[in-house]
Amino acid sequence: MAPSVLAAMEPYWITHAMLPSQQHPAAKAIAEALESSRERVATLMGCEPFEVIFTSGGTESNNLAILGRPDIASCESNSGQHILVDPACSSAISPVMSQLAQQGFEVELLPCNADGVIESDAIRSSIRSTTCLCCIAVASGITGVIQPVHEIASQCRDAGVSVHLDAVDAAGKLELIARSLPVDTMSISGHKLYGPKGSGALYVRRGTRLQSLMQGELREMGLRPGSENVPAWIGLGVAAMLASHAGNELHGMMDEHIRNLVVGLQAALPSSQRETIRWIGEDSPRMPGTAVLDIGMNAGRIQQLCDDLVFSTSDSCDPPDEMARALFATGMTQESIPRCMRISTGWTTSSDQIDAAVVSLASAIERCI
Fold first, then answer.
1. Burial group, residue 335, by CB count within 10 angstroms (0-12, 13-18, 19+)
2. Segment 311-328 mean pLDDT
């Protein structure tokens, strides 16, 4: 969490602890602060403030966007309806799709190329008369590969198919302009952009019908019951403001660090080993600071030896986790996925940290050769 985010949140735990819906003047001031935060989130998402629904994070936002649709909520009369899904969808969406499949919906995973990119021809040929929804991630949180969301959404809109974008991993790294995209909903999560855990937002285009998934005294445009999580949403607003001001220079630095790590690692290894390292999706458009490397050996073993580094691996378990699903979409197999590691850089990553990571990884790999 960014220090300025924490500083903005602190007064709303104790000093300004009233609920914004109360009639006391102090409560009205809190409500105004919350609306100011909503405006900051709207700026990040490229929409109007009244189109922003505060939530507890990406998982709730994605669930509300999908299960809150009236045609899906009344699934008994819509069994057999068809839904298109990004095969690398997040762990917030995959279980929802499994549930809908059990309820009679036909859920189809869209085909991808070797980098995990959904091609426009795949959308065109997959849409049917019964297709009611298409769910796409703006960018893979695993490989970092960016999907052609505008082209995909345009084809869906022309066919009368609603579109939900999962922008959880892209927010703060890519420019999001919801108003220029032919989509109905789009989700973000606070902790992905240096905001507080347990905070998120859902963009709901004007005129899009959703209904609450829970019962109670409704807040947030009638879509979310319960008391407002004021500290978290104030923090989300500050995080959104920081992310809106993060320019190309910062993102370029994040990507440069990733490239330096990969190049440095290859240079530090024996020639016989460096040729086995493959960067998944390197040649496709990617968001900055995220990469998956196939290192040619069990990445979990390297992870155990590099306890000074934090990176992700997958053992392609059943059911597959988010990383395994994203790599399966690129054509990787159950045998090759355990060779992969997901690495990322952030706003505070330094060149010294990259150099140290290269030394640590190279040493661990050489010990396993």
1. exposed
2. 86
- Average pLDDT of the residues of the chain: 91
Task: Compute the CA torsion angle 284, 288, 290, 293 (nearest 10 deg).
Answer: 50
pTM over the 0.85 mark:
yes
Instruction: Let me know: does 234 contact 78? Beta carbons within 8 Å.
Output: no
- C-alpha 45/C-alpha 177 separation (Å) is 6
d(CA 69, CA 46): 22
Nearest alpha-carbon partner for 97 in 62, 128, 130, 122: 62
- The position carrying tokens 């000093």 is 15
pLDDT for position 316: 65
The pLDDT of residue 27 = 86
- What element of type H or E holds 158? helix 149-158
d(CA 294, CA 216): 48
* Stretch 297-312: mean pLDDT: 90
Q: Tens digit of pLDDT for each residue in 168-210?
A: 999 999 999 999 999 999 999 999 999 999 999 999 999 999 9
* Secondary structure element (H or E) that encloses residue 98, with its range: helix 94-102
E strand segments, 229-333: 278-280, 290-294, 312-313
Model confidence band, residue 117 (pLDDT cutoffs 50, 70, 90): very high
How far is it, in rounded angstroms, from Cα 40 to Cα 288?
22
Separation between Cα atoms, residue 338 and residue 297, nearest integer Å: 8
Q: Which residues have CB under 8 Å from 24's CB, separation 6+?
A: 18
Dist. CA 290–CA 157, nearest whole Å: 30
Question: Which residues, listed in sequence order, are joined to residue 344 by a DSSP beta bridge?
Answer: 290
What local confidence, expressed as pLDDT, does residue 68 receive?
94
Residues 6+ apart with CB under 8 A from 102: none
What are the CA-CA distances from residue 25 to residues 19, 38, 195 (Å)? 11, 20, 28
Task: Take residue 288 and report the two structure tokens written for it.
Answer: 């900055």
- Structure tokens of 218? 């409704």
Give residue 317's pLDDT: 74
Distance CA 231, CA 6 (A): 9
d(CA 361, CA 11): 43
Half-sphere exposure of 23 (CA within 13 A, CB side): 0
